[in-house]
């Protein structure tokens, strides 16, 4: 389904056009994250549904009013997402992942500011995942999409310790009746 007419999705990336803006401090990141959460709560998704009102008939079966179809819109809570956060921050998802990976790789060698930044990013990521999971658990969000996005889907391992499963088929020895050497004769009997 295409984006609804009159949407304002472009406003998410209004400041992101051109070179991505880099967020310098953990405090700035936290403030921007809280702004994104607030924006998400203030801008629910409008889900449109078609509903039909059945034909009304009188006691003789004659049609009084024809079937009516109308569009109803329902306000639904907007799920937080890493894609939404990146669009709001004006950075690419790749930039965000690289920033997090770089900070993870530094491990104990992070400065105090980098440690604060790393904590802020991981906390934001955890809050987003928690909101998605909780929303899917109570039926606010599509559970299948949410579980896929979080990588929590059922995984079936079709291998054995990294090796392909191999089966040996039993050899079935079929003895043929000597009287049926002639196929036409056996079918006739």
Please, could you describe this protein's structure?
The chain has a domain at 16-43 and 79-153: Orthogonal Bundle (Topoisomerase I, Chain A, domain 4), CATH 1.10.132. Helices cover 42% and strands 14% of the residues. It has six helices and six strands; from the N terminus they run H-E-E-E-E-H-H-H-H-E-E-H. The strands form three sheets. A two-stranded antiparallel ribbon has the order 1-4. Strands 2-3 form a two-stranded antiparallel ribbon. Helix 1 (26-42) packs parallel to helix 4 and helix 4 runs antiparallel to helix 5 (143-150). The longest helix is centred in the middle third of the chain and has 26 residues, at 112-137. 12% of the residues are buried.
Layout of strands and helices, then pairs:
Blueprint (H helix, E strand, L loop, with lengths): L25 H17 L2 E9 L2 E2 L5 E3 L2 E9 L5 H8 L3 H14 L5 H26 L5 H8 L8 E2 L2 E2 L18 H6 L1
Antiparallel strand pairs: 1-4, 2-3, 5-6
Helix pairs in contact: 1-4, 4-5
Descriptive labels:
189 residues, alpha+beta, Topoisomerase I, Chain A, domain 4
Biggest beta sheet attributes: 2 strands, antiparallel
Quantity of strands, as a count: 6
Low-confidence stretches are: none
Highest CATH level, the class of the domain at 16-43 and 79-153: Mainly Alpha
Which strands sit side by side, in order, in the main sheet? 1-4
Task: Please state the second-level CATH architecture of the domain at 16-43 and 79-153.
Answer: Orthogonal Bundle
Tell me, what's the shape? flat
Integer-rounded radius of gyration: 30 Å
Q: Give me the strand/helix succession.
A: HEEEEHHHHEEH
Instruction: Determine the fraction of residues in helical runs and give it as a percent range.
Output: 40-55%
